[in-house]
Amino acid sequence: MGEKVRGYLMIIGGAEDRQRDKKILKEFVKISGGDRAKVTVITVASKDPEEAGEMYVEIFSSMGVGRVEALDIKSRRDANKDAVAERIAASTGIFFTGGDQLRITSIIGGTRAHRALEKAYRQGVIIAGTSAGAAAMSDTMIIGGAGDEAPKGNTVSMAPGLGLLEEVVIDQHFAQRGRLSRLLLAVAQNPYILGVGIDEDTAIVVRPDGKFRVTGSNTVTVLDGSRVSYTNVSELKPGEPLAMCEAVIHVLSPGLGFDMKARKPLMNIPWRNG
Fold first, then answer.
1. Are 168 and 134 in contact (CB under 8 A)?
2. Residue-number span of the structural domain to which 100 is assigned
3. Of these residues, 131, 138, 181, 200, which one is catalytic?
4. What b/e sequence results for 43-78 when a residue is b if at least 16 CB atoms lie within 10 Å of its CB, and e otherwise?
5. Is residue 270 one of the residues assigned to a domain?
6. What tens digit of pLDDT does each residue of 13-28 get?
7. 114 is catalytic
8. Is the pTM of this model over 0.90?
9. 254-268 pLDDT tens trace
10. Alpha helices in the chain (DSSP H)
11. Is 269 a domain residue?
12. Which of 30, 86, 90, 128 has a 20 to 30 Å separation from 186 between CA atoms?
């Protein structure tokens, strides 16, 4: 995974604290450059982009961000405009709001905006996403599936994501919506990828070296299927239960980390933004 992590990502499980300590958002602002930051809020996932944009612009402005602007990309035509690509290129921090992750990829995927995002990421700009914005970060994303029952055939749907984080699949609102079943199915179908389930008001901060740290108030579940010795996923008919043996699960609390290249948890390691 070494060359497949190129910059900084903050992947948030949704419902981050926006009123009290704002720990996650404060860290995003710090990495973005603090009062010198140029933050762009991308609202393409949202059903009400104006409301979402205004909310985050107000929050980041109140936290001392020097320049913050909402970017409403309504169509692929918008995503190919010079002004949109230029705004992304001028950013020191980019923040995707929640909503529908398929809107993000279907509108932005393969456009000038997408290429500008990839370039910014390669240059070290932090890209954050909450809820749907989190799901879209990886090269494969979960777009649907029941989370409140045993893992069964045909109960998870996946699609290509933005590809900023490769060989990983993200699920959000993880504990709150009981989504272990669908992450198990996603990893069973793609055992070379890591499954990362992020609880609400919790985030992972991914560094260019392929290591991430957990921050926020809840936990992150990492599911490693690379050592699975048996699974029946390829033979499952709709409604039949999944079997998967010798998968490895890590549950990480804030302050702990994970090395995605070595596939090992990290403890008591000093973290620096750089």
1. no
2. 2-264
3. 131
4. bbbbeebeebbebbbebbeebebebbebbebeeeeb
5. no
6. 999 999 999 999 999 9
7. no
8. yes
9. 999 999 999 999 997
10. 23-32, 49-62, 76-79, 82-89, 101-108, 112-122, 132-135, 180-189
11. no
12. 128
